[in-house]
Write a structure and sequence with these properties.
The chain folds into 2 domains: 5-15 and 98-213, HAD superfamily/HAD-like (Rossmann fold, 3-Layer(aba) Sandwich); 18-90. The protein is 47% helix and 11% strand. It is built from 12 helices and 5 strands. Strands 3-2-1-4-5 form a 5-stranded parallel β-sheet, with helices on both faces.
Length: 215
């Protein structure tokens, strides 16, 4: 039976990763290359030691991104009046933060009558609700569960179950895409058809979702 809903994480899934837009941010702000340090698993001039610490389980994903931002700001990355680097990078005019592959799948879901939702740990915390609600893609997602507002983070089962309740569907009829293996496991644990997005090949995750959704 085809799944009836698509549930997306935001960072790295609906949005590109900060690694992918870092070069554009440096160029548009006239910064020396390498001001924003680290590209995670992407090829770069030097290994991302902080990312390796995260992969070894020494720090959390949130710790990684906070260190990523703090290091860039210490190197002179401007915040342009924003409270932190993520907003400065993703909201910089000229930067396109949203994955075109994700938007294409969202359009296909809408055309096929599939339900749409977002399950994220920190969209509002990182980007601010006012900016999020002003984005062209925001009305496409009538269900949006954000752990930074809910106070309960993935992979706790409660955000997943709340998302399913708001979508009005059993977990088994929902396709969930995330880039964090532990969050994908959290979706599987409640019965969602969970798919891991690899930042090195994001299109593969969207194609897998199409198959589950019968698109």
């Amino acid at each position: 039976m085809n799944a009836q809903a698509l549930l997306l994480d935001v960072g790295v899934v609906l949005f590109k990763s900060a690694w992918e837009i870092a070069d554009d941010y440096e160029r548009l702000r006239g910064l020396p290359p390498g001001t924003v340090v680290g590209r995670g698993p992407l090829e770069w001039t030097a290994p991302d030691e902080t990312w390796e610490r995260y992969r070894r389980g020494e720090i959390t994903e949130r710790d990684y991104w906070l260190t990523f931002a703090e290091t860039a700001v210490a190197n002179g990355a401007p915040l342009d009046g924003h409270p932190h680097l993520m907003r400065a990078m993703f909201q910089l005019p000229g930067v396109e933060p949203v994955r075109s592959e994700a938007l294409a799948l969202v359009a296909e879901c809408k055309a096929a009558g599939r339900s749409l939702g977002i399950l994220t740990n920190e969209l509002m915390d990182f980007q601010g609700r006012e900016w999020v609600e002003a984005q062209g893609w925001f009305p496409d997602f009538p269900v949006l569960v954000d752990s930074s507002e809910l106070g309960i983070r993935k992979p706790d089962p409660r955000p997943y179950l709340l998302s399913a309740e708001l979508l009005g569907l059993p977990c088994e009829e929902i396709v969930f895409i995330d880039d964090n293996p532990s969050y994908v496991e959290g979706g599987l644990a409640v019965g969602m058809r969970s798919i891991l997005l690899d930042v090195l090949d994001p299109a593969a995750a969207f194609d897998a979702a199409r198959r589950e959704l019968g698109l």
